[in-house]
Amino acid sequence: MRTGIQKLGKTLMGPLSIIVASGLLLGIVSILQNPDLVGKGIANAVIIQNFIGGVRAVVSMMFGLLPILFAISVATGMAKEDKEIAGFAAVIAFIIFHVVIGYLLNLKGINAETTSVDYLMQEGLTQIKAFEVSNAYETMLGVFTYRMGVFGGILVGLWTAYIHNKYHTKQLPTAFSFFSGNRFVPIMIIVTIPFISIVSYFIWPYFNTAINALGGLISKAGAIGTFLYGFSERLLIPTGLHHVLNQLIRFTPIGGTAVVDGETVSGALSIFNAELASSNPDIDTLRMATRFLTQGTHAFMVFGLPAACYAMYKTSYLENKPKVKGLLLASALTAFATGITEPIEFSFIFISPILWIFHAFMAGLSFFLMDIMNVAVGNAGGGMIDLTIFGILQGTYTKWYLIVLVGLVYAVVYYYVFKFVILKFNVKTPGRTTDSEESGEAADTVESSSDELGAVILKALGGKENVLEIDNCISRLRLVLNDTSVVNNTLLKSTGSMGIVKIDENNLQVVYGPKVEQAARSLKQEVKK
């Protein structure tokens, strides 16, 4: 189950990358609209306004497609082979899923007309109650259905992946052989997905009530809720399950619900982007959404962890300083610019529980402080790029300067806490191991160039016969092996790995940071030889 959840968490990152890119476009557009930054002439120019309108139209459409994007991403990510067929089947499944639900709703007289606010108010409902009822439904790709958001997409994606993995190699009798294999998958989807729709039709209202209640509890918890989120999110980093928590907050009612330009939007990131796309954004709604977004991460990503890298460098043995300087500098710059922190975190979380808990606490505290200080910096990156586009260049209403002030304090605290703990408990952070301590498998260590990267990784993993599945997320190589006990950790580290996580006897994660795409591609090519 844990392996499946981790794999699901990875598949949820696909749509996120599209939304983050769309958010960056909206951030740039909002800068062009600010006369204090670009002048009234540019802000009101016809060409600029047309450009802004075009960006808003494209980005708004992308937000509307989120559920089906999740369906495709989950289906292709969970499929073991022939992923393109799984993606094709997911589109079919998604449409049929909502068509059946819409049909069942219509049988009870529930449609777009009878759930409109005006109609419900004419039937005697108050305006607030009418909005509550109306917001439970939406029109998705021209089909009236429940407002299920990304949950519907994830459910469809999971079912499609299950059917695909079960039947994509199915061989039918000779008379029907044309429909065998991959062609059989869409057929089984058409046959089975209506039953999933029927079950969802009856269960969803109760599930939706529970999700909204959970979102209400988190909202009522105020800044304490944001602290618990930040603390838990960093605590889950070693397991990879933080991706699941992030997406629940970013794209479901757990992260909040708001009405933007007359449309109901759920999820912290969805609300933030909808407000950015609005011609008349509401600052209070923006702040409500951003309390779960990057404003809570900048203090430790841009300032704290780079300072921790400096502490690790300063405490490394003199003879090892030249070796670790480049590694720690690259990791620090990556965290500073992009918010990718796992290469740093994996250098200490497994060898020092004290530093791990300290880091998680400081993450939660950062979210807490930004919330109570009413900071309003959004998006989902966390590095200096996001802080600049969504904070500094947006104007003082974001209170970005408070992030910088807190961040400077974080840099000092991280540096001295890391330095003290490393020296006090002799923590074996990078640069604090001797040649004798590293000699266990040192004979196998190979300096790998980009051309031979895949070959060295494959050798470290025990050869082709030991590799079952190869996948990756934003910073980790995720592997399913026959036996993780034969893995040569030292040889893996020679390829640039910053951390290795053996989840169980079959599942292994190797942290490469921004280099992970190259590592995954090289390994896949080597396995195919």
TrEMBL record:
Its main location: membrane. Residues 1-434 form the PTS EIIC type-1 domain. InterPro entries: Glu_permease_IIB (IPR036878), PTrfase_EIIB_Cys (IPR018113), PTS_EIIC (IPR003352), PTS_EIIC_1 (IPR013013), PTS_Glucose_EIICBA (IPR050429), PTS_IIB_1 (IPR001996). GO terms for molecular function: kinase activity; protein-N(PI)-phosphohistidine-sugar phosphotransferase activity; protein-phosphocysteine-sugar phosphotransferase activity. The active site is at C473 (phosphocysteine intermediate). Residues 451-529 form the PTS EIIB type-1 domain. One of its GO terms (cellular component) is plasma membrane. Keywords: Cell membrane, Kinase, Membrane, Phosphotransferase system, Sugar transport, Transferase, Transmembrane, Transmembrane helix, Transport. The keyword RNA-binding does not apply. The chain crosses the membrane at residues 12-31, 51-73, 85-105, 144-163, 184-204, 210-231, 292-312, 324-340, 346-369, 376-394, 400-418. It is a multi-pass membrane protein. One of its GO terms (biological process) is phosphoenolpyruvate-dependent sugar phosphotransferase system. It is found in: Cell membrane. It comes from the Bacteria. This is PTS maltose transporter subunit IICB. The lineage of its organism: Bacteria, Bacillati, Bacillota, Bacilli, Bacillales.
